[in-house]
Amino acid sequence: MGQERYIKSEEDNAVMKVDFLNPSSLEFRLDSYMRLNLHNKTTKEIMEDVDLKLMFPLTHRTGYLEIFNGAEEFGVIRDLKELSPKSQKVIEEVLEQRYFVPEITQIRKVIEKYRLVYWEVLTDRGEMNFYTRTRHDIVVKENQVFIRDIDSNRYLIRDITKLSPQDQKELSPEI
């Protein structure tokens, strides 16, 4: 099916097998129940209701895509762009739903309510309101801020330095 690679960990001497799939032999389709199906054009095999996960969802949005058949990893596609345009479109739709991450462009209000933190923000997808529990729900990496709300939805501030001084002041107690 693909090209196997073995990755050895220096720390614990463990070996992990990675099966890189040949994108030219794969075709992804959504069925009438909106489940993702994988058709291997070479082997004529069809896998129904496969699952996808990006190995690096925030830093590499088009590469290293894991394909699961149930709980078992089937293989990895190095780059989404190697698939046919039709399959790319299907995968992009599925990933958009799975990795829905609005980008916060303005912070209107951040206040503590009932031992939760209430946020009123403007995002690239409109106005949003949400709650966070603790500071552990907020991760700062360089100038980026990643926020997870109480429903496990994620939000991104791409560059904190580009927020207005007032927005930075609202955000400051939380980071």
Which terms summarize this structure?
175 residues, mainly beta, 12% helix, 47% strand, elongated
Give an account of the 3D structure.
By secondary structure, the chain is mostly beta strands. It folds into 2 domains: 2-98, no CATH class; 104-174, no CATH class. 12% of the residues lie in helices and 47% in strands. It has 2 helices and 14 strands; from the N terminus they run ββββββββαββββββα. It has helices at residues 85-98, 165-171, and strands at 2-8, 15-21, 26-30, 36-40, 46-47, 51-54, 63-69, 72-79, 104-113, 116-123, 126-132, 138-141, 144-148, 154-157. The strands form 5 sheets. Strands 3-4-5 form a 3-stranded antiparallel β-sheet.
In short:
This protein has 175 residues and is mainly β. The chain is 12% helix and 47% strand. The strands form five sheets. A three-stranded antiparallel β-sheet has the order 3-4-5. It has a three-stranded antiparallel β-sheet with strand order 6-7-8, covered by helices on one side. The protein has a three-stranded antiparallel β-sheet with strand order 9-10-11.
Uncertain regions spanning at least 5 consecutive residues = 4-9
Strand content: over 45%
Number of helices: 2
Q: Structural class of the helix and strand makeup?
A: mainly beta
How confident is the prediction overall: mean pLDDT? 85
Outline, from the CA principal axes?
Answer: elongated
Main sheet record = 3 strands, antiparallel
What is the rounded distance between the termini? 46 Å
